[in-house]
Automatic annotation (TrEMBL):
One GO MF term attached to the UniProt entry: hydrolase activity
Lineage: Bacteria, Bacillati, Actinomycetota, Actinomycetes, Micromonosporales
Origin superkingdom: Bacteria
Coiled-coil portions: none
InterPro entries named in the record: Metallo-B-lactamas, NDM-1-like, RibonucZ/Hydroxyglut_hydro
Keywords noted in UniProt: Hydrolase
Pfam family, one: Lactamase_B
Entry keyword annotation includes Hydrolase: yes
Protein name stated in the entry: MBL fold metallo-hydrolase
Amino acid sequence: MAEFVHVAGRVWVCVGDPDPEFVQAGVALVADERGSVLVDAGQSPSHAREIQAALAAAGLPAPRWLVYTHHHWDHVWGACAWPDVEIVGHATGAELLRAEAARPWSIPYLRAEVLRNRRLGPSFRARALAVDSWDELTVLPPTRVFTDELELPTGVVVRHVGGRHAPDSTVVVVPDSGVMLLGDSWYPPPAHLRTPEDAPDLALVARLLDDDIGWYVSSHSPPMTLAAARAAVAG
């Protein structure tokens, strides 16, 4: 059952299902009465509805902005279930998502793609499990794009960092709360593109560490304090 837990200041996190078979990313909310910022959309319309119910149960304000940390399906396929939000994302991700939106997503299409490339199997099986109705799925590119950095009216900073996991990887910084939301930025490439040499990009994390940021939150990992993040980088 989806549930929001408080991290620090205005930042709340709803963790994803830890079972790797489901490939379910967590989402975060930066709460603000002027309009909250939702970071990532959920992996499907049904997951987005679970997140909406968790928002209501926690008494948190509805989002006005939805920020994509990157274009991968488990972060964006829930966007079509979020009404009245401005979707913010990196220009590279916007291009990639326009191509994704044109694909004929369905069980027959997933099956055909896996037969073409067996390495897609785990990801595409997870997509089949995630989507209740293909008729309700619409892949949405961002409606507001940026290239380097963007500050939203509520003081939330969106910053492109790139990396090997996705070219459009973006972190979200909430300075007044001392929180940085990392998305998947430091993870190795997706499984179907990964080689045995690929590993977590700890150098990227090291570049992001900041004495003014006390918490670091990744999409598929528990929140880490600055001290724990430094220890992880140091090995």
